[in-house]
Amino acid sequence: MAESVRRLAAPYLTVEPGAPAPGTWEVIAGATPPAGCVAESVTAQGESTVEYMVDHHHRALFHVAPEGDSWVTQSLLRATRAIHRSAANRQGVLFLHAGLVELNGRGVALLGGSRAGKTSFIMASVLNGSGTMVCNDDVSLTADRDGDGVTGTGWPRSISVRLDTLDLLFGRGRADTIRSSLTHPANQTLLSLRESGVEPHGTALLYPWEYADLMNTRIGSATKVEAIVHLSLADSPSEAGMVPVTGSQRAALLDKRVLRLPNKHLNIFGHEPDPDRSQRTRSALQNLPTFAFRYAFRDVRKEVDHLAGRLAEHFPSD
Q: Which DSSP category does 63 fall into?
């Protein structure tokens, strides 16, 4: 099981044999929870409910259900990630709803809400040979010690890809083959979201290692952020384009994408942030070159080159 978690966690977290350090949280499967534990559950849209028992006194979290290796592995990874992200939040690390890509070697944070086109854009950039994904949907950011630069770090989270994105980038036949090969257990139930109308485009979950194999690429674990792009999908090609975001607008747009909690679920480990460090990161981000970029979904591969070209104009010394 540890080997399975290691594969899912790479390249963001490492798994090593040995006893946990005193006072650290443990995530346990295959053992009976002791008396006095508190029930905790995670219910994500389109997924089976994952049940835990939590021993707060001894800092232990026990996986209870569902059974089966794939769900146990996913459950252990999710809980481990939540523990680390809560610790990072306490240290003042800032979490944004954003993707992070190295576009022609330059770290670009792509900010946007759900279905803003972040994952499609990053995948298209990789296929174009110009991009390396660090993360596709949520990034943690930390200001450098001098307060000027910012480093973005990814986390081991499955990559949610629209089914029409797979069709667009790979063709319907290969997209069907890709979907049938995916191992995230929630893929067995996610189609219910499209059938119910909750997710009209449909979605599939790829683990990072599956993404790397599919795209024949490496995944970066962290990179310096050199530009911020507020990304959105245009309703028609005529609406596509890129404009700079002025200083007076930057704070408000950035604040819309700040995650108030470090995790979608399992915020039970303490996460009150260091306000000074978090504010330094916000200030550093507001000083970065910032743009709003709208693109037409069907033209995503062409639009990758468009954004890369406009950024190159802004950084002529490169």
A: E
- Give yes or no for a contact between 106 and 284, defined as CB atoms under 8 angstroms apart: no
Cβ(307)–Cβ(299) below 8 Å:
no
- State how far the Cα of 157 lies from the Cα of 159, in Å rounded to an integer: 6
DSSP strand pairing (60-65 vs 26-28): parallel
Q: How far is it, in rounded angstroms, from Cα 1 to Cα 19?
A: 16
Q: Are 126 and 208 in contact (CB under 8 A)?
A: no
Q: Say how far apart CA 61 and CA 316 lie, in whole Å.
A: 51
Nearest-angstrom CA–CA distance, 127 and 223: 20
Torsion of CA 207, 213, 215, 218, to 10 degrees: 90
> Which pTM does this prediction carry?
0.93
The single-letter DSSP state of residue 32 is: P
Name the DSSP class of 147. S
What is the tens place of the pLDDT at every residue in 108-166?
Answer: 999 998 889 999 999 999 999 999 999 999 899 999 887 679 999 999 999 999 999 99
